[in-house]
Amino acid sequence: MTNVAEIRQAMTAGIPHLTPDDADSAVRLNGVTKQFGQVTALADVTVDFTPGAINVLLGLSGSGKSTLLRHINGLHQPTAGEVETLGVAVHDASQRDLRRLRTRVGMIFQHFHLVGSMSVLENVCAGRLGSLRGPRVGLFSYPCAVKEQAMAHLARVGLADKAFQRADTLSGGQQQRVAIARALIQEPVVLLADEPVASLDPVSSAGVMDLLREISTDLGLTVICSLHQVELAMDVGDRITGLRSGRVVLDRAADRLSRDDVFDVYTAVSAPEAVDSDPARA
């Protein structure tokens, strides 16, 4: 069976290690507004995310974090403005182009979105459905190479011994690790994480975020992660973008921020203010 080191080497070879100078790999939103009826979820959002780093979206529930994430892979389309992901103009892309893009953009969710009655291994294999032809019914229907890759990714997240358990027998932290392995088997270039630790206890939360940090560093993945915990954001984020009522109110490198700066994202205001941005970014 293929071992973890071989899978890691193959993934690293297939995914360029991204740097802030890789313009074609950037994720950018330019003047994006999103309305749901009379509700404005995003208001003239302009932001770009640092390639190969952990970019944190920080804000209260309802601030627009999840809506922004779903624009990156085309699950939402903007009412106005432009979205570019991995060189694809998402706002103008065909459904075929969006499907192709989504094979390169992994996503993990707050509530894991695993199939509880399926084994852990089959849940991870399901991450390859977008690149396999034909339906899959049961673990036996996946190619051996896919199952070997899935086992290697489970080993990476520390759950190889749980491969044949039902997913719904695992703890919350373990289920989120399975979801990360499922995203990694896609061999993504960008990984979106929508409140990945909101349902977890502090110890499990720290473990999951440490794992995301390790993966981003090892594979050069661009991670864009929504959080509402300030301490976690400061500990793991390379860049922090603060959202309030659908507007960007903070956008700076984490090492140039104090905790007071970050807590200001949660300060109630009567009117939108200018973005507090990194001078080096202008």
UniProtKB/TrEMBL annotation:
GO terms for cellular component: membrane. Residues 27-270 form the ABC transporter domain. Gene3D superfamilies: P-loop containing nucleotide triphosphate hydrolases. Signal peptide: none annotated. GO terms for molecular function: ABC-type phosphonate transporter activity; ATP binding; ATP hydrolysis activity. The keyword DNA damage does not apply. InterPro entries: AAA+_ATPase (IPR003593), ABC_transporter-like_ATP-bd (IPR003439), ABC_transporter-like_CS (IPR017871), ABC_transpr_PhnC (IPR012693), MetN_ABC_transporter-like (IPR050086), P-loop_NTPase (IPR027417). PROSITE patterns: ABC_TRANSPORTER_1, ABC_TRANSPORTER_2. Keywords: ATP-binding, Cell membrane, Membrane, Nucleotide-binding, Translocase, Transport. This is Phosphate-import ATP-binding protein PhnC. It comes from Microbacterium faecale. The lineage of its organism: Bacteria, Bacillati, Actinomycetota, Actinomycetes, Micrococcales.
